[in-house]
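Fold this sequence, please.
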Amino acid sequence: MRLLRKILLPVSWLYGGIIWLRNYGYDRGWFSSTSFDMPVICIGNLRVGGTGKTPMTEYIARLLKDKYRVALLSRGYKRSSKGYVLAGPDARVGELGDEPFQFYRKFPDVAVAVDANRTEGIKRLRKQINPEVILLDDAFQHRKVRAGMYVLLTAYGDLYTDDVILPAGNLRDTKNQAARADIIVVTKCPAAMSTSEMKLIENRLQPKPHQQLCFATIDYDEFIYNRQGERMPLSGIPDHASLVTGIATPEPLLQHLDGLGLHYDHLSFPDHHNFSEGEIKNLQQKKFVLTTEKDFVRLESQLEKVYYLPIKIKMLGEGKAVLTAKLLSVIGNYSL
């Protein structure tokens, strides 16, 4: 793998140069960005997946939804539909994409829409829903919209400062674009992370004076759930159950389950994987399937005995207070 990445480095340099020119064009005003007279909060990353973007978006939604009319706008990656789609009672995972559909089911009081054209999507959301705050999911590199606040995520043990541009690495944007973030959140940290280690990471990231740095960990539920809403303690998972993951970095989940002493057979698929008919038939032969919440929305209607393990973001130290204060400060700059 290392040899392949070295071979691909020249391609990364070329791709990185193209991205740099694109960003330079936006910085100089050669390409236009649209601003809105309402709070638009962008949550994203510099790499392709694996930073905990979905649970962080859910975390921010929980912080705001009881105070404001919140809407979520996503691209809807790998959905079957085109253009703008507003989730409704008859919404299906195929037309929204797995993550927006998961969000819609968890937050019935938050409007959810998908549109690859974020500018048009925001305009249509405002016309149809008139939200007070819009969360832009996975749009850090989408510079046609100038958000009011940027939350940049980077994963513990896989910081963007240690990565390189695609295809030799996993970065889809250049590292210097991190300077546009208002808050940088290091996700997937150990729950008992020390302040000295936080300081070491701060020294590696070197946030700008205007930026605030927070740390977060994954908080796993004590129970797993099926489509009927029935729950089972993790200790009730039978030996050699089949763990199915279609996420970018399943390692934290594997470490969590291993730490509980569970025995399972892991079936790993690419991120946002659309399961084939043959794969579904194979999974139907399994006695017990455990999966992620994102994969569950694509598997629940096709498997009889399938459960998912919910996760949430838990901010470490003063992270919740810092993030909340920044969000409220930004929102307070607008006349709602």
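Residues 222-309 form a domain with the Rossmann fold fold (CATH 3.40.50). The longest strand covers residues 212-220.
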